[in-house]
Amino acid sequence: MNSVHPPGSFKSLLICNLKLQHRQGFTAAWAVISLFYILGLSFIPGNIKTVIIPLVLLSEPSTFAMIFTGAILLLERDERLLENLFITPMSIRAYMVSKALALSLPAAVSTTVITLVLRGPSLSLLIIPPAVILTTLVFGLYTFIPASASRDIMGLLGRIGLYGSPFALSILDYFGVFPGVHHYLLPSKGSLELMQAAAGTGETDGLTMILSLASICLWIVLIIPAAEKQFRKNLIHTGAIA
């Protein structure tokens, strides 16, 4: 299971996950969410909309990515698809990263469309794809920790709410509650800063961008081994997918 996957296999795995997510309706879900946000925000006054848009952009690669990642894991476990991990050279890390990365692509398209429709064309739109992909990787990979211990959708949602609650501190910081540079210790702070820049409502100076990207990338590096450890503990060592 820990053997290195052969050249080109990760690309094939990513394409397979994209197709699988499309068949399971997740692509359609992104489209519906985007339409809902666009229609809803179209009726909100401009000054309020300016404040809300960065939060909307953050919700897609964070909150929805967590829910979708957990739901996919539950579906694949119930359909016994995870047993393929034992009969292929695919590593657990490749499995997790491919799932998160596959979700990041429709999320990037969705957030770009939302911003384009609501804010108009701008060079700042170029910030969205890398920001969304990195953010989805963080929160998607992080979700494997609570999701691997969940056995049904209600348990999954409860654990996601619990594990995701610390990131709400970045939202409080956004509204001026408990502000401070220490919030860069959370990936949600860096992601929100990038979304503000993408929406044209935040800082785009070099230091802010560096802190934001560094925070997200550091979390990705830290989360991968932690998520793999919990995956092994909750699903493999317990025999849940054997």
Order of helices and strands: HHHHHHHHH
Summed up, the domain count is: 1
Give the count of helical stretches: 9
Strand-residue proportion:
under 5%
Counting DSSP E segments of at least 2 residues, the number of strands comes to 0
The residue ranges in which pLDDT falls below 50 over 5 or more consecutive positions are: 1-7
Helix content: over 70%
The overall pLDDT average reads 87
Radius of gyration: 18 Å
How can the largest sheet be summarized?
none
Distance between the termini: 13 Å
Coarse morphology: globular
List keywords for this structure.
disordered N terminus; 242 residues
Question: What does the model show?
Answer:
The relative contact order is 0.14. The chain contains nine helices and no strands. The protein starts with 8 loop residues before the first helix and ends in a 6-residue tail after the last helix. The chain has one domain (about 10-235). It has about 240 residues and is mostly helical. It is globular, with a radius of gyration of 18 Å. Helix 2 (about 25-40) runs parallel beside helix 4. Mean pLDDT is about 85; it is low at about 1-5. It has helices spanning about 10-25, 25-40, 45-80, 90-120, 130-145, 155-165, 170-175, 185-200, 205-235. The longest helix has about 35 residues, at about 45-80.
